[in-house]
Design a protein that fits this description.
Blueprint: H1 11-31, H2 34-50, H3 57-75, H4 81-88, H5 96-112, E1 150-153, E2 158-161, H6 168-212, H7 223-308
Length: 309
């Protein structure tokens, strides 16, 4: 029967810990400046010395994971030192000087590696001469085929998609409308939850008025009435927007069906034009062959008459 696992007496565990300890010290000397590197090495030595006789597998596992994560951060030059030092050092044994040294290390690391700026190159505004889809689509120029749009429902926001990827302006509009709808729903739920509290406030005001003669509602409005009025207003705005989206979706569907009909008609016209062009080429080819045969017979006729004489 195997005995209990003692980390301090396990050769494999000791070798792994020593390898991690040496790798952390070596990486800190390569990545950090001299003074922060010395502070980090002293912190690592103190943590390893404190947990040298720890037998809790959960504590050992957490400490090793934090050490390996710190080593990965050094390898990839991410320098997430504050998070790793918070994991390695315990709050009970951390002093004010240690916290100040840690903050100084983090400030130097952030100043030496500034965060890159994210540049958004997407167009967030429509083109100057752009035409609204609901006003009707523009005619297709000669030589181009009609692109049939597809009707899409994005979080109860209908729109017509003509190509992929869609424009950043359209994505921005969809996100804005979706956020506004979610805010109205959250506001409705909050007002519904506040309605019982408003009724309690009205009952309390009535008790004060009957017992002490104190009137809290000089203008005649109550907590519950104001809450109901705000709730009705939000529901009305939400309903109006829903009806507006329904009408817009109906118009978009009609535009899509009309575009399908026009595309089919244009397909028939193109097919007839190809057929007429084929008939014209064939007629021209037959006329050319007939002319060549006529000229050939005309050239051979004088030769034959001379041979007869």
């Amino acid at each position: 029967m195997r005995g209990p696992f003692v980390p301090s007496k396990s050769g494999v565990h000791r070798a792994a810990c020593f390898a991690l300890f040496r790798a952390l010290l070596r990486s800190s000397r390569k990545v950090l400046p001299r003074e922060p590197s010395n502070q980090f090495q002293s912190t690592v030595k103190q943590v390893f010395r404190t947990n040298a006789k720890t037998q809790s597998q959960a504590v050992i596992r957490a400490a090793l994971m934090a050490g390996y994560q710190t080593l990965d951060d050094f390898t990839t030059r991410k320098l997430c030192i504050l998070r790793q030092l918070a994991k390695l050092s315990t709050p009970e044994k951390e002093t004010r000087s240690d916290r100040s040294r840690t903050s100084n290390v983090i400030c130097e690391a952030k100043s030496s590696h500034p965060t890159p700026r994210l540049i958004d190159t997407g167009r967030r505004w429509p083109h100057p001469n752009a035409k609204r889809v609901l006003d009707g689509l523009s005619p297709v120029p000669d030589g181009y085929r009609r692109r049939i749009p597809t009707m899409v429902n994005a979080n109860h926001i209908p729109f017509l998609r003509f190509k992929k990827p869609q424009s950043p302006f359209l994505s921005h509009m969809i996100r804005r409308k979706t956020d506004e709808r979610e805010k109205r729903i959250v506001r409705t739920q909050r007002l519904e939850n506040l309605l019982p509290l408003a009724e309690d406030e009205d009952r309390w005001d009535e008790i004060l008025r009957k017992t002490n003669g104190i009137s809290c509602n000089d203008n005649g409005s109550t907590w519950a009435s104001a809450t109901r009025e705000a709730l009705l207003h939000v529901k009305k705005v939400h309903k109006d927007n829903t009806i507006k989206r329904m009408h817009a979706a109906q118009r978009m569907f009609e535009i899509m069906e009309r575009e399908k009909i026009l595309a089919e008609q244009e397909k028939i016209i193109r097919r007839n034009q190809r057929h007429q062009a084929y008939k014209a080429r064939r007629k021209l080819k037959q006329a050319t062959l007939t002319a060549e045969q006529f000229h050939g017979e005309a050239d051979t006729t004088p030769i034959a008459s001379a041979a007869t004489i």
